[in-house]
Structure prediction request, 195 residues.
Amino acid sequence: MEITAQVGQILRVGFKYFNKFMIFMWQLGLGKWVNFWPEVVGRIMVITHRGRRSGLKRRTPVNYAQVGDDVYCVAGFGERTDWYRNVRKQPQVEVWLPDGWWEGLIDEVTAEKVRVPLIRVVLIASGFAARAAGIDPYTMSDEELAVVTAEYRLMRIRRIAARTGADGPGELSWVWPLATFILLPMALRKRKSKH
Prediction:
């Protein structure tokens, strides 16, 4: 299935809103919950990178697959993908995964011999997302997959160091105790007043 320019634009706008929601979920400390059913929903991580012009911190949720010690993802809109253009200029990134937060170096995998098999692994790990794009990574031949993913950019992230700090996944998890100690008593008080 070929994605027209109009459909591509609609998808990009939709992803912007979906991405904000996903990042917020991670900030609330719900990164593991986002990945609750990887076979269907997909495996989702967040890449923190720097804007190529602004130098500002940017965060982008993407589907991923871990192969050995490395993590792989794809830029599905090819060279037009903003985060792809950012990491090409500044390859040092932070990665939020369900099992931890770490710094890494990202580079593009272009060797055809490994590119298509690794893209297949990432697309399988994306759950419904690949099928929503009209790609069936389970049944397509390598040749078919190479054609439909020709624009995709396969990226490999290698770990450098573990991270800690207040600006990573779960930075807004303080909301849960606040909600428990303030909102829950208010709700219970309101319920008692109705009786």
Remarks:
- The chain has one domain: 5-169.
